[in-house]
Each structure stands twice: as C-alpha cells, then as structure tokens.
Amino acid sequence: MKRGVALRLGKKERQYRILQELQVHPHVRVATLAERFDVATETIRRDLDALSSDGLLKREFGGASARPMGHQPDFAQRQLSAVAGLERIGMMAADMVRSGDVAMIDAGSTVAQIAPFLAARATKLPRTFLTNCYAVVQGMAELSDRDDVVMCPGQFDRRENAVYGTDTVEYLRRFHANIAFIGASGVSRHGFSDVNRRAVAIKRVMMERSDETWLMVDHTKFDQRYLENVAPLEDLTGIITDREPDREISSQLERAGIRLLAWRDDKQCVG
Questions:
Q1: Residue 79's closest CA among 198, 218, 230?
Q2: For the chain: N or C, fewer Cβ within 10 A?
Q3: pTM, 2 dp
Q4: How confident is the model over 125-148, as pLDDT tens digits?
C-alpha cells in the first residue's frame, strides 16, 4: 500500500480494513498491519484493543484472530468440549427452584445441566417445568411422578436437540412462570447475545412470561459478543456461572442490581 493512501485512512476506515483482512486470514499480526497501513505498532494495538472490546475480534499475543459471530458447534459438540464446572452451574440453578414453582428452561448445553439436579431434589409441592429442549426432558428421567414436565411444540432442530419457531413462542405465551433459566453464547457490557436467531425469540418470551430470569453461562462466555443481542444485562434477575467475571462486568452487574452466583474455592459465592 502506498504511503499517501495509508495516510488518508482514518481510524474507522483502518479498523474496517482490519476486519476485512480477518475475513480472508484467520489471524493477523500487529507488525504486519503496522507495515501495511504505515502506522506505529502502538496504533494498531489500540485498534485491535478497541475492536476486541466491541466483540468484533479475539485479541491474541502479537495480533488478533477472527471471531465467528454467527456460528457455534452443535449441541453434542458443545457438550464434549464443555468446560469443567458446568455441573456446578446446574446444581446452583436447581437450588433456586422452590417447592410448587413453575419454571421455564431454555435449550443449551449449559442450561441442560440443571435437569438431573432438579430430578434429584424432592419437594413438598409438585413443580412444573416447561422446556423446548429434549436434553432437559431426558435429564429429568428420574423426576418424581408428582412433578410435571411439559415439552413445547415446534420445529425440531437436530443440531440443538430442541424445538423452535412460532408454535413454540405462542405456546409459551399461554403460561406464567415463577422463574426462567436461559443460556447465551456471549455476555458483554452491551448485554447478552446468541448466534442462533431462532433461539433468541424463545429466550425473550421466557423472560417475558417469568417473574425472574437467571442466565446460566460458564466463564468463557464473558466478554464475548455474538450475532443477535437478546437483551441488556439489566433485564436479568441474575447470572449463574462457574467463575466470577472480570471487575468491569462484575461492577456493571452490581450497579444494575443484578445478582451474581459464582462458584469460588468449592463454595457458592453470592454477589
């Protein structure tokens, strides 16, 4: 690139071209970009930091890599690669369901962890669980006969082992729940987001029809941003996770009055 052309590039245009470069090459280096745009390496580092902060790329040592906002592995693959600690998230979530409650349960490899713990807990009054996820239903095989599990109708998605669509949304709107448990692909200061647009509609209606909404995510989901935003963090009652997020996210949650349940040193930490 000629020096005169590089000098005419403003910050926004330069950052746009960096993102274009990542569409062709999965990894870019600071030194290479600095030479290409004829700017200081520190300028490129600031560009990459800004784009990473917006969730548009993944910052790495010496450069950055592309972040696929519109794709994630299917349900089975996510279960195989799941981080240690997902069972802890499921256990903490199950502890929040009270005797006689009606709970809506979203689809997803993390949210599905709640099922066996719910099945293992006996309550004085029967509970009702509504879900669009077959893995949740299967995980409740040992549930008491006194409790009800309601599987939503809808179009089956083999990749997610769940149902979605207009029928699912309209069916959920017939009910009210005490509590909803939902998942997400990413959580950032902008809110929580997901790569599956059909799943977003289910999450929103569950939030709408429930008195409380708890987001179940592992620590790798923090500071991540994906295709469609579900809602701002302020719309949540709380977040259940296996490890506390960084101070920036924790402070934002605290300011918004959102509870944080994180597992720390083998103890449940209530924030």
A1: 218
A2: N
A3: 0.71
A4: 999 999 999 999 999 988 988 999
